[in-house]
Design goal:
two-stranded parallel ribbon; 2 strands; mainly alpha; MetI-like fold
């Protein structure tokens, strides 16, 4: 595709100077999607004001300490749980292994802040656990010690229970690709199953495990609802407080830049892990023969894989159902119909925009492969690594400046005030979703386009179809399934998204996720259970499809 179609009579030299349109459009799209990050990084070079000096002297060390502690605890926890469960269901046979093979991904359907709400009600002083403990022992409130779920370790535990499936899925795929040759050689040399696992299988799968842990840590750094509910002060909560409570955009952007540093560190460590170990997981050889477990070993394996599923999905959902039953009638109210409509419109619009941009980027890279297209697509993937709070601040700062300039011009030229045209608008919110989730759509669209052979393009061109015609008549009908899959994944992700929605949403415009957060913030946990269950139900759709795909991939 070119800026101008070829016309009869144009010289060859003139035709040679035409600029391909698709790479230019893809570059513009990539720059638009990466603009919020550039805005945040640019703030590093601006001197901080009194608010920033106050934050740096008082709460900034706490933000750094708590964020670093969460990264370490969640990283270790998701690695242990995800790797252990993946090894057991892949390499061992015990009662229920096929059932756990796909159900272990179910915690992905439950947002971390929803699990936080459920366990807060379950484990707090007035909750059923401590009430039963006092009834059984006769103790008073001051006669015993009980761990506080509203703490940094409590938040880390919630993240581990919800995010370990990222490590589980990648670890399982890596173990399935491994040949048994090296493992059997280690057994022949006298090593037991666990010793052979630690010395052979685990190092071979390390690049995949690093990728899974990195994904879990990205979600941890991006979280706002769980850490806020537990009272854990992190960079994400600090950004929200600096913008709304203190009203200092520069302090918010400085904190966002600090959070970018944590994200960059995680990405560097993940890349280093991938490069330090050659990926031999796909080496040819005899498939791994599963180990048949019996007796105590089988019971221990069953318990090891059942505990994450029990505490990461079954118990939280059961708690929410019990809390929601007395309030389920609110789902029929006009208020909830409005919340569902708002959430659905935002999710559908955001998914459509993100998938459309991903199709533009992927199609440009297909027709014009090279450094520009590769650079554009790499830029876009950075968006998924950015927490919603960073994206929101990176969008609000330039939009607020633009709105102020437009308003100043309107006042001077027409003596009218335009107010805020873009700041706090639905357009800004959809822009944030596109920045955050276009990378997910791009991966799906690229995978779908890879199934379309080049001969189909040549045939369509021979029959007179242009670039757009080939896309509409050939590519889209073939990759329709991939586009629908990407749209479904993004629809669910946007429905659950909280920090960017909280910061950027228009006044008096709430979603299901915002409603759940507001009720939980007011300690109305029973009422918060209703919108929380709606989010879980929506999230179950792609997770169940994913579980079915995992079951089919056993062979």
């Amino acid at each position: 595709m070119y800026l101008e179609p070829a016309k009869p009579g144009h010289s060859t030299a003139s035709a040679g100077r035409r600029v391909p349109l698709l790479p230019v459009l893809s570059l513009v799209a990539a720059l638009i999607l990466i603009a919020p990050l550039l805005t945040v990084l640019a703030s590093v070079f601006q001197p901080g004001g009194e608010t920033w000096a106050h934050l740096a002297a008082t709460v900034l060390p706490r933000y750094i300490t708590n964020t670093a502690a969460l990264v370490v605890m969640v990283g270790v926890g998701t690695f242990v749980v995800g790797t252990g469960t993946a090894w057991l269901v892949t390499s061992c046979r015990f009662p229920g292994d096929r059932f756990f093979e796909w159900t272990l991904v179910l915690p992905l359907a439950v947002p971390a802040y929803v699990v936080a709400y459920a366990y807060t009600d379950f484990l707090q002083h007035s909750g059923p656990v401590q009430t039963l403990l006092r009834d059984l022992t006769g103790w008073g409130p001051r006669d015993y010690w009980f761990p506080n779920i509203r703490s940094t370790p409590g938040a880390a535990l919630v993240f581990v229970l919800v995010l370990y499936p990222y490590v589980y899925m990648l670890a399982r795929a890596a173990f399935l690709r491994q040949s048994s040759t090296a493992f059997d050689a280690a057994r022949t040399l006298g090593r037991g199953p666990w010793s052979a696992f630690f010395s052979v299988s685990l190092p071979m799968a390390r690049p995949a495990l690093a990728g899974g842990v990195a994904l879990a840590l990205m979600e941890t750094l991006a979280d706002f609802g769980a850490v806020t509910h537990f009272g854990v002060q992190t960079f994400t909560t600090g950004i929200y407080r600096a913008w709304f409570a203190l009203g200092d955009r520069l302090a918010a952007t400085h904190l966002a830049a600090g959070l970018v540093g944590f994200v960059f560190l995680v990405l560097v460590l993940e890349r280093w892990q991938r490069q330090t170990v050659p990926n031999r997981a796909a080496a040819p050889g005899r498939p791994f023969a599963p180990i048949r477990l019996r007796g105590t070993a089988a019971a221990l394996a069953f318990a090891a894989v059942a505990v994450p599923l029990l505490f990461g999905f079954l118990i939280p959902v059961a708690i929410l159902i019990e809390l929601a039953i007395p309030h389920v009638d609110v789902l029929l109210s006009s208020r909830y119909r409005s919340l569902v409509a708002n959430s659905a419109v935002l999710a559908a619009s955001g998914a459509a925009v993100a998938v459309g941009l991903a199709l533009l980027l992927a199609y440009a890279a297909r027709l014009h492969p090279g450094r520009i297209s590769s650079f554009n697509n790499r830029l876009v993937t950075l968006g998924y690594a950015l927490p919603g709070s960073i994206i929101a601040v990176g969008i609000l700062v330039p939009l607020a400046a633009l709105d102020n300039q437009v308003d100043a011009f309107a006042r001077s030229a027409f003596n009218i005030s335009t107010g805020l045209l873009l700041t706090g608008s639905i357009a800004a919110l959809i822009y944030a979703y596109a920045v955050r989730f276009s990378a997910v759509a791009l991966n799906s669209v690229e995978a779908a386009l890879a199934t379309v052979t080049a001969s189909m393009d040549h045939t369509a061109r021979t029959l007179g179809a242009g670039v757009i015609g080939t896309l509409l008549r050939v590519h889209i009908p073939i990759i329709r399934g991939g586009l629908l899959t990407a749209s479904l994944l993004l629809f669910v992700d946007i429905m659950k998204e909280l920090p960017a929605t909280l910061i950027l949403r228009p006044f008096n415009f709430d979603t299901i996720a915002v409603q759940a957060f507001r009720l939980a913030s007011d300690e109305r946990l029973a009422e918060a259970a209703v919108p929380s269950l709606v989010l879980v139900a929506v999230g179950l759709v792609p997770v169940i499809l994913l579980g079915r795909a995992i079951t089919r991939s056993r062979s």
